[in-house]
Amino acid sequence: MLYFLRYFWYALLVVVFQVFVLNQLDLPFGGQLVIAPLFIMLLPFDTPPFLLLIIGFTLGMILDMFMNTFGLNASALVFFSFMRPIVFNWFRSKEEYDGTKTPSIREMGWVWFLSVYSLLSFSFFIWFFLLEIFRISEIGLIIRNSFSSFLYSLAFTLLFQYFYVGVNAKK
To answer: Whole-angstrom Cα distance, residue 114 to residue 118?
Structure first.
């Protein structure tokens, strides 16, 4: 029960910070700073895939209600949640993932985290902006917005991980 409450409060914090702080930023090149995928990423390895999809959908719908985006965040977070176990299997190390670990820099190291999170995050933004713009003639705009949002979010994620994890991270 304590496990559930801890992640519930983290999710609430993500929603409040995203809606009231990050969405108020006006970033250049069509970029958006989004931290909801980081919440999905940092769930423990033993989180069942079906539960990941439910969490992604619920978190996305809550963000959509506040942001007036009509399912855009829900769709992108469900896609992120769906891809998470697949990408984790691609980057599986020689030893199995420990169910008690979380996929953070502290637990898995910088190289693993950057590789996995970069792939998942960029996929999230491509999906997000494909649905938001929804015109193949605007592919340049989709790629520009996706890339700039990816860079902003990755920079924020690395700063968050650095201060959250500290300097004694695995190499």
So the answer is: 6
Residue among 63, 69, 8, 75 at smallest CA distance from 34: 63
Q: Within its chain, how far is the Cα of 43 from the centroid?
A: 10
Separation between Cα atoms, residue 33 and residue 132, nearest integer Å = 15
Instruction: Say how far apart CA 70 and CA 73 lie, in whole Å.
Output: 8
pLDDT at 171: 46
Q: Given this model, what pLDDT does residue 2 score?
A: 67
In total, the chain counts a number of residues equal to: 171
Model confidence at 167: pLDDT above 60:
no
Side chain identity at residue 76, one-letter code: A
The pTM of this model reads 0.89
Q: How far apart are CA 84 and CA 80, in angstroms?
A: 6
Helices and strands in the chain: count of H runs, count of E runs: 7, 0
**pLDDT(108) > 90:** no
